[in-house]
Amino acid sequence: MTGNREDGVRAARPVSVGGVGVLEVACDESGSDGENLTGGNTDVFAHASVRLSVESAAGHVQEIRGRIRSPAEEYKANHLLREKHRAVLEWLLAPAGPIHGHAHVHLTEKAFFVVDRAVDLLLDDASAQALTLFREGRRAFGDERWRVFLAAANQLLRVRNDGEPQEPVDAFFQEVDSLRRAHSGTPVSGILDRLSAARLRADAYRAGVSGGPTLIPVLNPLLPAIVATAAHWSGGGRSVRLVHDRQNMLTPERIAWIEETARRAGAGLDGFRLVVAREDPRVQLADFLAGIARKIASDELNGRGDPVLTALLRPYVDPASVWGDEPSWARLRSTPGGTPVDSGVPSAR
User: Alpha helices, DSSP H only, in 185-251?
Assistant: First the structure.
């Protein structure tokens, strides 16, 4: 980690390090439910980033306050999402608005993230297999059995376990074997067969997480989203420094992992600093965008999307978002064609 809180809000424009320009980008997230991805309060996680000067961002935040005129001391995305402030929301996202071309959002569909991480843990050719299992399995199993399978996969992967050590492994493989018997000959039967044969990997994983603190929790979407954010902004060979809202997940050890993982992936991540959101208007704008994007994407995922808001959000959406639902992705994706990618975080084996 570079820098400190006291100097963390001052660098606004591209700064020079050894004569080379470095873009400073401010970030925040929305939709964090810890490791409870299948039974939490939200079904979408959003990580937003904004590249503006502190002065410009402060002016935009002040204009939002002036347009909304709420007495609240701290504004959040829910202020903008209220129907009476619809015009302000559309202005913020519009092509002529203050953040268009200067902001970006990486989306994670939580249910797909669980499947992707479970398949990555247990199988070798994970990416295509995860997408097939997610799309075809959901259709084949039916809603109720699909929810049971997701919950079992979530329990298998989560670090915290309040029951017997082997209970998550037993429950997951019992469910897989039950589905194998009930859905033989379907497009996912081969994947279920392979999952059933991968118990040794699951046992090794549970032994590892039970043996001590886990540096990179497999089920936390924040860390891979930050790596993807660094990759986006460093496209074209640029160097990027990320400024992020403080939170407990971002320990010095995990920040070091983010920096190393981003660099190994070819991203030009020059540094990572933590700030207090209310002291940096750029992070406040990222917070607005993250909450807005999470709500719009969740509405699309659940078949109640607003076409106008979805169209306004589309230019901000990372094509490398972790998304499995095909119909909603077709409406959300920022470029024609293409499919989202896996989360890119190696499972602990």
Answer: 189-196, 199-210, 222-233
